[in-house]
Amino acid sequence: MTKKILPLLLLAALSAASHAATPPNTLVVAQGLDDIVSLDPAEANELSSIQTVPSLYQRLVQPDRDNPAKIMPILAASWEADAAAKTLTIKLKPDAKFASGNPLRPEDVIFSWSRAVKLNKSPAFILNVLGWDAGNIDGQLKKVDDHTLQLHWTADVSPAVALNILSTPIASIVDEKLVAANVKVGDFGNAWLKMHSAGSGAWKMRVYQPHQAIVLDANDTSPTGAPKLKNIIIKNVPDPASRRLLIQQGDADVARDLGADQISALQDKPGIKVLSIPSAEQNYLAFNTGNSANPLLNNPALWEAARWLVDYEGITKDLLKGQYFVHQSFLPIGFPGALENNPYKFDPAKAKAILAKAGIKDAHFTLDVENKPPFITLAQSMQASFAQGGVKIDLLPAAGSQVYARVRAKQHQAAIRLWIPDYFDAHSNASAFAWNDGKSSTVAGLNGWKIPELNQQTLAAVAEPDPAKRLGLYTKMQEELQQSSPYVFVDQGKTQIVIRDNVKGYQQGLNADMVWYDRVTK
Question: CATH number for the domain including 510?
């Protein structure tokens, strides 16, 4: 589809919507898309891309829609695990095909995981948990026959954890034959896959124009069945007030990321439903301890004082109007073993005493933040509340993609960030916040936090076979990070999605990649 045709398609949708109905076979979704860096599943690691990739790609196994702790076969027909040998032998569904019509082969799986590891983009650390890296990945994957492959991992993790890791978006399977035709030297097709698709999901890419729209067509040959509708238009609408107007007037069928005020205004409007869905989404403040321009960021006294300078109740109840609730631990409520205590509250006098005892004067830092709710809301609240404790914050608001880029380049002093687990396992969050091997792009790594003792605890927890003992290890780690770390965990979200009341069958789960459009009807 050419760039000239896309505006015509959007115009047609908007024209139809002026009569209070979007096209009957098309779902129009209004949300912000400015955070997207790439739609290559080996690179996608932003909220909007993680929400989109599962419509285009499938994994061998994925979490059950209704019980995410349960792993379900998707492109796999079956598997056998050998814990002692650290191997999984996987049989593929013999009739599975990609949207291109190419059959699913073991070679596609091997290519997909190998390229993801070798590209080493932002989410590659998830596969690194298995001990895979660019130097050894080729020896860990082998074809057994035309419908069977065997994978080996070197890290000390159980088969259950390995399967959880392989249920993540970065483990999506791409069509090697299609991608190979679009490879540039050394890029494994990454430049092409940023804006095209080569998957077996319920949808296939018609066109993606950054900062404008994503247009998807139904993939009627998807191994999990054809979707109910023919098209999806995901429109970039950066302003939440504009998204509210679109859904209220019928110019959109679904609206995401509305602010608390917009949600409140829509609660009782005719023709509209507000869905409140449990979410593992968490917001936190992170200090870049490796930023030499501001040595204060590496001072545990600042971290401790910061915990008493966040107005948790004011943010969650007054500003975000119940869309979030206070949660001060790195495991979200809903995950086994999550801490539910919240020991910190807004106490500027206590924070001042902590800073004074440490001899800290003229405390200040810059704060990178996405210029959209809830992030900018948190930032503005913190700017005011930290000032009451004598700490000056200079806000650096920017588009999501810019904030992601600065954090990944470690150019920030502090940042307000969103975190959603990559898979339904405590190790997903522990390996992000408590693991830094100096090479991986974990949260700890991006914020320069060197923590060898926590590295050891993280490895012990993921290798522990006894479920009860394993939860105990994660409890200890949560307590340690809650008390002393360069993170201030602020809140946990309730995803609120606004839909027109004629939209049926929409599903969304606890994690960001658990967004399903395939059963939607209008």
Answer: 3.40.190.10
